Amino acid sequence: MGLDLYAEDLVANYEHPHNKKNMPDCDSSSHEYNTTCGDDITVYIKVKEGKIADVSFDGSGCAISVGTASKLTDAIKGRSTSEIEDLGFDFIVGLIGIDPGPARTKCATISLKALKHAVFIYEHKKPDGKTESL
Amino acid sequence: MAEINPEEIKKDFPIFESRKEGRRLVYLDSAATSQKPREVIDTISDYYRNYNANIHRGIYQIAERATEAYEDSKRKMAKFLGAESYEELIYVRNTTEAINLVALSWGEKNISEGDHILISEMEHHSNLVPWILLSKRKKAVLDYIKVGEDYRLDQESLENGLEKSPKLVAITHSSNVLGTINDVKTITRKAHDKGAIVLVDGAQSAPHMPVNLSDIGCDFYALSGHKMLGPTGIGALYGKRDILEEMPPVIGGGDMIEAVEFYSCSWNKIPWKFEAGTSNIEGGIGMTPAIAYLEKIGMGNVFKHEVELTKYAIDSLSEIKNVETYGPDMKKNDHGGVISFSVNGVHPHDVASIFDNYNVAIRAGHHCAMPLVTQILKQSAVSRMSFYIYNDKDDIDKAVEAINEVKRIFKK
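Predict the joint structure of the above. Result:
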């Protein structure tokens, strides 16, 4: 792991996160907790005609978890729920531009896991293995 | 050896020969586990290469040699700790298992509904969760000695706790988060006056300071071998002979019995009564060179060295803006080689990740002391550096360099 994990862009997203708010009128939400770091992230979604009409997150955590949640919520607005169902670790690597390494993978993927759970709950589906192993 | 020379000591630890991107390893996480000197690694390898056999069974030379080496390590450990006899030492996996053994054996037999158990707010989960479980099983009352604003045990709270005549007082000798060293000798005397049994969690004291159990007077003392230069998977529970003899075994099997019939059995003598099944033979044998290494340096010198490093680190950190440290002041000689700290506005895991880029290993998290970190320090997590014989001031300078990088990245 190099210093690039803390690229200026990611740190800026941590310091001033986008889409960080509670969403009481959401269609679905999911909360994830990372026991090692104490990262605590809830993702909220609104779905319209099979697409993510709005998304936000709330909670607290390290720069990797909060910065990634900020970038993720920006990136997936307008995408279809079936697209979200297919997203995996590679999507996060593309988003932050680096493999976070084994010690920080959970931090980087916690918001994606919460997002996918929220979608699965909305769809009345059971999360798949790919999601659970994030 | 009169004074510690970390530069020379590092040469005895093969791990410090490695480099990552040209940087040497700066290891500041010895409170989690210590590095191992060559003698320990070689002793374990020698056992497997030259006399691997099960102990207490074989009537052949290598089995006798293995048995002797394993039992000899207990004699060395007993002497190291100032215990009266090696029979008062039970080998277990670690401190956690040692304390759980007390809870499951002594606790099950002696704790009843309404009894009080007194512990402190600065306990590691290993000296906390077993008592939560026991008090729930027995409907006993768990009381806490508070941690004061000076990060020491609150004396009034200690007295109040003792007024309730607890059956058991279980207290850490040295906090793995704050570095606070508790006066366990005085606590033991006061607790004994109230009729309590005293357990001391020695995970952070046995490796770092002179410990004399006869002088402390406690009834139980628990330690982990891997924090004191030894291998993982070996720890010890010390217990006073008369108490151990009255305790029922918790795990049944081979080696812990005297005689077995189809429907009954009788127990082996202490300590073997508590060591069912094949022991961690390599672990026990590996403790002998670990203890020899520490004795060669002298535990008084180990302690003095760590206090000096702690003072230097606190002075260095206090000069950095936006860095907060948690632990008692250095005026009373009761702060061992552990410093927890925060860089304001930066999560400790980010701090540790950035340290890692400098090949500086520190710990970040709740350090298995969640109530202390979240409710007393009021942090979700903290960063921690901890010192040992192989650390020097240059290691701390490297840590300071890494903190400055944290501050640069996060513009603090």
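Chain A has one domain: 3-124.
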